[in-house]
Design a protein that fits this description.
26% strand, globular, Alpha-Beta Plaits, 3 domains, Arc Repressor Mutant, subunit A, four-stranded antiparallel beta sheet, 8 helices, 41% helix, alpha+beta
Length: 239
C-alpha cells in the first residue's frame, strides 16, 4: 500500500480541464461520437462508450445531448469526419507529454499542437517516443470508509493491482482496464461511495520539475488545454 503523495501524483492534473464546462462538453460529445462509431451505440457492449457516457453524466450534460452524440456516432453521421491523433513529446526540463486529440482537420491540429510545444520551449517527438513511460489503468477513488479492515478485506477479493490509502476514510484503487467496470460495479453494489473513477494513462517513471522548468511545463499544459481539438493530456511531471 502506498501513501497519499503517490495518489496525488497520479491525479494531479485532473480537474483543471474539467473546470471549463463549455469545452468539456465539446470534448465529451466528440468522445461519445467517436466511441459509438468505433464499436456501436450500446453502452453494455462498448466499454469505451460507457465510460464516455458516465463522464458526461458526471459533468451534468443533458441527456438529449448524450443521446444525440451516440446517434451521430453509431449512425455514421458527421462523426465520420472525426479522427483520433496522439502526439508525444517533452516539456522544458524533459518531462514526458502525451496529447490525445480528436479532429476533423489533421493539418490544423498538428500545427496548433506543434506551435504550443515550440512556444513553450518543449520538443514534439515521434510516435512512441514517450508512450512506453505510461501504463493504461483504471483508477477509482473510494470515500467515506467507516471500517478500514472490512473494506481492505473486501477489495483484496477483487481483481485489483493496488490499493493506496489517501486519508483516514478514503482509498485509491488501481486495476487493469479490462477489470475496471467489474471492479467499479462490485464496489457500487457493495454500497461503497466513489468520488471519481476513470481509465487513464499513469506514468511508470516520474520526472520531478522545479523552478523555471516547472513554470514552463505548467504553462505549456495550460496552452495545450486551450487547443480546441485536444481531448486529454498526460504527463509524468511531478511538481
Amino acid at each position: 500500500m502506498a501513501g497519499h503523495s503517490k495518489w496525488a501524483n497520479i491525479k494531479h492534473r485532473k480537474g483543471r480541464q474539467d473546470a471549463i464546462k463549455g469545452k468539456l462538453f465539446t470534448r465529451l460529445i466528440r468522445e461519445i461520437s467517436v466511441s459509438a462509431r468505433l464499436a456501436g451505440g450500446d453502452i453494455n457492449s462498448n466499454p469505451r462508450l460507457r465510460s464516455a457516457v458516465e463522464a458526461a453524466n458526471s459533468a451534468n450534460m443533458p441527456k438529449e445531448k448524450i443521446d444525440r452524440a451516440i446517434k451521430k456516432g453509431s449512425g455514421g453521421d458527421e462523426s465520420q469526419n472525426l479522427e483520433e491523433i496522439r502526439y508525444e513529446g517533452y516539456s522544458p526540463g524533459g518531462a514526458a507529454i502525451i496529447v490525445d486529440c480528436v479532429t476533423d482537420n489533421r493539418n490544423r491540429t498538428v500545427a496548433d499542437v506543434r506551435h504550443v510545444f515550440s512556444k513553450a520551449g518543449g520538443n514534439l517527438g515521434t510516435e512512441g517516443c514517450v508512450a512506453f513511460l505510461f501504463k493504461k489503468l483504471g483508477i477509482l477513488t473510494v470515500i467515506d470508509i467507516e471500517d478500514e479492515d472490512a473494506f481492505l478485506e473486501k477489495i483484496l477479493e477483487l481483481d485489483v493491482e493496488d490499493v493506496q490509502k489517501i486519508s483516514d476514510n478514503s482509498f485509491g484503487v488501481i486495476c487493469a482496464p479490462e477489470s475496471y467496470f467489474d471492479v467499479k460495479d462490485l464496489l457500487l453494489d457493495s454500497g461503497v461511495a466513489l468520488s471519481d473513477s476513470e481509465i487513464t494513462l499513469v506514468p511508470t517513471l516520474q520526472k520531478e520539475l522545479k523552478g523555471k522548468h516547472q513554470e514552463q511545463t505548467e504553462k505549456m499544459i495550460d496552452l495545450l488545454e486551450d487547443v480546441d481539438d485536444v481531448q486529454k493530456i498526460y504527463t509524468n511531471a511531478v511538481f
